[in-house]
Design brief:
By secondary structure, the chain is an alpha/beta fold. The protein has two domains: about 220 residues, Rossmann fold, CATH 3.40.50; about 70 residues. The chain has ten helices and 14 strands. A hairpin with a 2-residue loop joins strand 4 and strand 5. The chain is elongated and about 70 Å long. The two termini are about 35 Å apart. The site of adenosine-5'-triphosphate has 11 residues, from helix 2. GO terms for molecular function: ATP binding.
């Protein structure tokens, strides 16, 4: 496939980042992240605690000014988003806090006015289905309830781009399933583009079309969910062959007996590194969860 020129990708991608770097108090959190979402894709952003997922999301949406690099929403610079672009986008932070002095119903009625495609019926039905009390102050809801109200707010606006920062963190398993079903439905039926961060690998398998793995501020891996098992594997080399290990690997672990385990990737021609053909070498398939654990450890 020919690479799309960066300028064109910027213009069409609902969300794109180029060379984002950021640090807090002198410590680097993003180290040059490039990421662009295809329209209609569901991208699961995964990474350990503190990997920089929330920082990346906030920088991509223009809610934080990065040290360097740029971000674009619907092709507009994220730091100067116009009202039209804002109305096409919905973002649910990890811990929603805004408008705590309103009741859930008041908040939904209030914000609904700013969205041309607001689905009041959905908001009403989902409040009931998710057993949320419409007349309780947001500030008095539990974190999970508060996050569910915010998810209703985001979904009722029928956004073209939906960004969820760890939506599963405060939800019980039933609510989580329902949310994932709703997200998959929106992506499938309305072509909504979705970016969500998570720690839960099974959520990625259930709903994401693509995954991006952020580790210590760098995107280590980006590929289709179904493709990962084909593209990455664990290469085990006996001690006697460990010197032949490829230099470029996603992770490298030496065992007590001197043997090596490496996470390796097929090259552009679909071949594993040459060391995989050495006598005694072994290639083992990796499930998504194993892959992340191997890389993140
Ligand atoms: N406002 C801030 N001031 C100082 N340090 C911060 C600030 N926000 C985040 N950090 C630090 O930056 C790093 C990345 O944080 P971030 O919240 O982006 O990670 P994350 O991948 O979303 O983590 P988690 O999965 O735990 O939510 C962490 O070490 C965090 O402590």
């Amino acid at each position: 496939m020919n690479a799309v020129p960066k300028e064109i990708a910027q213009a069409v991608a609902p969300l794109a980042a180029h060379g984002l770097t950021h640090s807090y108090e002198g410590s680097s959190v993003l180290r040059g992240v490039d990421l662009a979402l295809e329209p209609g894709s569901v991208l699961g952003l995964i990474g350990r605690n503190g990997a920089g997922k929330s920082t990346l999301i906030r920088a991509m949406l223009g809610l934080l000014q990065p040290l360097s690099g740029s971000a674009f929403v619907f092709g507009e610079p994220a730091l100067q988003l116009g009202d039209d672009a804002k109305a096409r986008l919905a973002y649910v932070p990890q811990q929603p806090e805004a408008l705590a002095w309103l009741t859930a119903q008041q908040m939904l009625d209030y914000v609904g006015r700013f969205y041309p495609r607001w689905d009041e019926g959905f908001a009403h039905r989902t409040l009931e289905r998710w057993k949320l009390q419409p007349n309780k102050l947001l500030g008095k809801l539990s974190p999970g309830e508060r996050q569910r109200v915010d998810l209703i707010r985001a979904l009722a606006s029928q956004p073209e781009l939906l960004v969820l920062d760890e939506p599963a963190a405060a939800l019980d398993p039933v609510a989580r399933r329902e949310l994932l079903r709703e997200v998959a439905l929106r992506a499938g039926e309305s072509g909504t583009t979705v970016l969500f961060s998570t720690h839960i690998v099974s959520d990625l398998e259930r709903v994401a079309s693509e995954i991006a793995f952020l580790h210590e501020g760098r995107l280590l891996l980006r590929c289709g969910v179904d493709e990962t098992k084909e593209r990455y594997a664990r290469l085990w080399l006996p001690a006697a062959k460990s010197a032949a290990a490829p230099a470029q690997t996603l992770s490298r672990r030496r065992h007590d007996d001197g043997s090596l385990s490496l996470v390796v990737e097929r090259d552009a021609q679909g071949r594993w590194p040459e060391a995989a053909d050495l006598p005694g070498a072994r290639i083992d398939a990796l499930g998504l969860e194993d892959l992340f654990v191997e890389i993140a450890e």
